[in-house]
Structure formats: C-alpha cells, structure tokens
Amino acid sequence: MKGTIVAVCRSEQTGTRKEPCGEGIFIEDYGMEEDAHASRGIARQVSLLAVESIEKMKALGIELNPGDFAENLTVEGMELFSLPVGTRLGVGGEVVLEISQIGKSCHSGCAIFQAVGACIMPKEGVFARVARGGKVRAGDQVEIIG
Questions:
Q1: Which helix (H) or strand (E) holds 121?
Q2: Residues 6+ apart with CB under 8 A from 68
Q3: What is the phi/psi pair of residue 143, to 5°?
Q4: Count of alpha carbons within 13 Å of 58, Cβ hemisphere only?
Q5: pLDDT for position 84
C-alpha cells in the first residue's frame, strides 16, 4: 500500500487549523520543525489524515482544505486509520514515522463538529512519532516499511 503527500501543514499555535507550507523538516523524537504540536518524548508528535477521510466530511456539505483538521500531513491513497499502532511509514525516502495512536477525542468546541454535528478525528485521525527525521514535501511517496 502506497500513498502520496498532498499537503504538508503547520501551525504556530495549538487549537487552530494548520496552514499548508509545501514542505517541512521533521526532527527525530520531536515532530515537525516550527509546529505548535511538536514536543520531545510524546506519542502524538505528528498527525496524519487521509484525503479520503476528508472527502467523507465534504459529503456532509462542508468546505474543507488540507490542514483544517490540524493535520501535519494530508495523504492520498492510503487508509491510514486501518494501520495498526507500531506500523512504520517511510515518507519521501528519508523520514520514518511510527504510528502511535489511531483517533483522538474531538472536543465539542471543534468548528467542524459544530457545523455538521460530526468529526472524523475520533476514528480516522492518525498520530505518529518521528523515528527518523528529514524533509517531507508535497508530492512525496508514503509507504509501509515495517
């Protein structure tokens, strides 16, 4: 199973949507450089979301763009939430991410939940720690490596 990075996104503050930035530096056991959610020693250093998951929410009538769910990496072509915790993903031939959590609680204040009464993050948001750092760009391949 392979996918493609559609967007690399970051934010300066937690609790806000992330903005596409084209590329990012991912630091081992830290997360994405200059991203508000990055931190050493935590399991949720990087967030990933599939384009296919976002499309489910668009079908409910809401306009969405990469980063609106505060994901660092928007990926097309992989059902990310079906991968087990511990799966390693090679990204762009350099970065290795290890899936650490599937889903997270969606706080009731989430703008998307308020607009349509549903959110995909509790079941389809994927979180990872950075096992090996490097640069990730939109267009890079994502593949399971172990």
A1: helix 121-124
A2: 17, 54, 112
A3: -145, 150
A4: 11
A5: 96
Higher-scoring residue by pLDDT: 36, 4: 4
pTM exceeds cut of 0.85: yes
Q: Angle at Cα 69 formed by Cα 141 and Cα 89, nearest 5°?
A: 25
Phi, psi of 74 (to 5 degrees): -100, 125
Domain residue ranges in the chain: 2-144
pLDDT of residue 104: 73
Fold adopted by 2-144: M1 Pyruvate Kinase; Domain 3 (2.40.33)
Coil, strand or helix at 36: coil
pLDDT, average across residues 131-146: 96
Closest CA to 127 of 108, 94, 104: 104
